[in-house]
Amino acid sequence: MAAYITRRLALVVLVLVAVSMLVFGVTTLLPANVAYLILGAFATPEQVRALELKLGLTDPVWQQYLRWAGGFVTGDLGVSTLMNRPVGPMLLEALQRSLMLTGLSFVLIAVIGVGLGIVAALRHGRPLDHGVSVATYLGIAVPEFFWAIVVIIVFAAWLGWLPASGYEPLSAGVWEWAKHLIAPTMTLVFGHLAHVSRLTRSSMIEVMQSPYITAARAKGLPERVIVLRHALRNALLPTITVLALDFGRLMGGIVVIETVFAYPGLGRLVVFSIQNRDLPTLQAAILVVAAIYALANLLADLLYARLNPKIRFGRHVA
Amino acid sequence: MLIIDDLTVRYRTAGGEIEALSSVSLQARRGSTLALVGESGSGKSTIALAAMGLLPAEASVPSGRILFDGADILTMGAEARRQLRGSRIGLVFQDPFSVLNPSLRIGDQVGEGLVHHRGFTPEAAFERAIALLDEVGIVNPEAVAKAYPHELSGGMRQRALIAGALASEPELLILDEPTTALDVTIEAQILDLLEDLRARRGLTMLFISHNLGVVRRIADEVAVLYAGQIVEQGATEDVLQRPAHPYSKGLLAAIPRIGRKTARLAAIPGRLPDLRQPPTGCRFAPRCPFATSAETLRETPWPVQADADVVKSPSPATQAATAEPVVAVEHLTKSFVLGRGTLRFEGWRPVRDATRIRPVDDISLTIAPGEVVGLVGESGSGKTTLGRTILRLVEADSGVIRIGGETVSGKPQSALKVMRRTAQIVFQNPDSSLNPRKTIRELLGRPIARFSLAPAGEIPRRVDELLDLVRLPVHYADRYPHQMSGGEKQRVGIARALATQPRFIVCDEPVSALDVSVQAAIVNLLADLKDRLGVAYLFISHDISVVAHLADRVAVMHHGKIVEVGQADAIMSAPSHPYTIRLLSAVPRVDGPPHVQPKAGRAAAVPA
Questions:
Q1: What does the buried/exposed string (b/e) look like for B204-232 if buried means 16 or more CB atoms within 10 Å of the residue's CB?
Q2: Least CB-CB distance to A218: which of B85, B100, B143?
Q3: Which residues of B touch A233 (CB under 8 A)?
Q4: The whole model's pTM is what?
Q5: What number is the average pLDDT over the span B562-573?
């Protein structure tokens, strides 16, 4: 198992190196001169030239890459060209807020999605099953920003229960903090339920028809035990893989959701740095998203191995 | 103990309602074993499920009662039924490979009935499970209890299932084909175990099987089921030695018997009636050779249909002396790496001690033209790997393979065109070896076109000839595999192998998945084809009686080696290798003296 984890971690590092090259490559190919961006439109060519030399922009691309990547390894993420602040702390703050949002959404998606999947599977072909299908499909079929606007109209404009946008830190009070999280979380969860619930439903239906479930029935076990102990364990395996992919999709989803709800997280930072050609911030932010994605998948694979004894290693009895 | 009275079960399906059981009445007395026999589709498993109160939602029960200890299982509440299941009635399923939950430990699965029926704590149940595993003869029960199903062999899984069914000391044990998926030697062990348990615990058993030899060993009484009806019922020896109903007669006649080699096996023609509209009167009548005559059945033997145009080719023995063998392998070896082992260092060099198995271990074998060599052995002995390695479907590690005079080992796959034509294979499972999206015409026409054996315009005629050869009606050419029965599909599998006019065919358990009556027909067909076309077979089977019937020579395989090879009759009557003797003595037979358990003190208890 330890060897397996080490091997998988090495792969994650490899993926990150590849992503960093891509990110760096694409952003340096952009028709934007960092020196111009910093100095503004009225800079003289001499000033630009001097800054380029100072920033090392005239060096070969691979030297620039190594310097940039080296900075990443040592924790120096560069300085935002727009805000004139180090990218590191800025990014960390945004990341924390975004992880709050995605983490909460993810837990809800997993719990509600699996729950709906089980219920639909046990009642499959009946009205409840169809109801769940229609609702979750609606969630995934219509783009997220639409639901975001619906949520704002209903809960902020009509009912006035929730603020339409923004963020308050925990220090401003738990309720204040939570109030700003509810609307974006709701939108994210609704848009992502379908994957998890549909997959859980279909694998649950399949598992419930397998001979070992009939065998469990023949043992006279209560239905609750059959569903939760015998069926769910096996039915969840494919769901886990999809949950990891969904975490990646969530990280993409926050770009839209944070923009609509004016939530100051990673997604908004990405949009903001693209709009303002803040290359150091953009590069760092994208790399962070990639790292989260890779780690989420690693975690899913480890969990999968934990739940599925067939891919655990080095045990033979007979 | 268990009384089934006038039970009728119907299933709703897309194609209409099927009557799976029609007015079935059965009775299993306390402490006795009642066997149910019949071919697939006869309704055997439906009886097991009904007795457990586990009929699926599509099933309806228009009439009948199932009384267990006086209480009707069909009318009692769901909760009362659940209390009965796994507590007073135990069920052992057919396939030990799919009825154990892959993600729960064996010990938990064996013991969990105790948690829910007897109020054990999970830990106490686990302890009890270890004791039960010990009781069913598992060595090292602690380790097995902690293992997951995929870590165990089939025989161990079946024992674990029996242990699970016995956990809460049921009074009635229902066994649905408990040994069908197992090797004969394991089967013999399981049957001994059941005998022993019955004697010790006074169990009542309902034993469902299609294997009459097994039934004879274990049952006091037999009920023969055909198309949802019981056609004959009585004491085991009576029914098996003096069958009264034509169907029982046919079933018995279809079984090849060791030491009694006949030219042909008796097959039962036709197939089960359509149960959507069960025929009135005798359901077996359309397939019954006695249907119109008024012969006294007990004395009249089941007729063996001689298929007309069988031309005997010169006997293989004389041919073998003159001709070069069609297949010759020398020192063939194939090994697989099971685990790569842990990494360690020898000085600077990293070394792994890989775990290898060698399913084909230094095997040399020749097959003469038109000769049938039977290959027997238990699963895992390497039979299938050997067959595939000879055809280079699996690449050998070393050794020489010559087919039709051509040395095929060492050639690249692309240069094997001639060999692919000369040598063909028939697979065990026609369901998975025939492409479900192709018609029979496409399936059979493809190899003909591939090897340019006929001009394009001629192909349909060749396909018709092939169908004729395997005795399928010509109009079957436009059917898809799913529109045919198991036996018919296997005929197509044989026709496909014959399409290239091969000289040698590897038959890899071609009849193992089929019912006895159908099996007999396919074995006859293979024998006829050999006589008519002079094809040689490597006939792989775990069923020694089938091999003994068909083969000229028999090779016995054990752990990747051929331990004994010789003339079929000689090996069957006087085996010399201990493994062959063990294999032969494990085969349950329908004739000869009744089986007596070798254990002292048990012999007297075996009823006549």
A1: bbbbbbbbbbbbbbbbbbbbbbbbbbbbb
A2: B85
A3: 101, 103-104
A4: 0.75
A5: 90
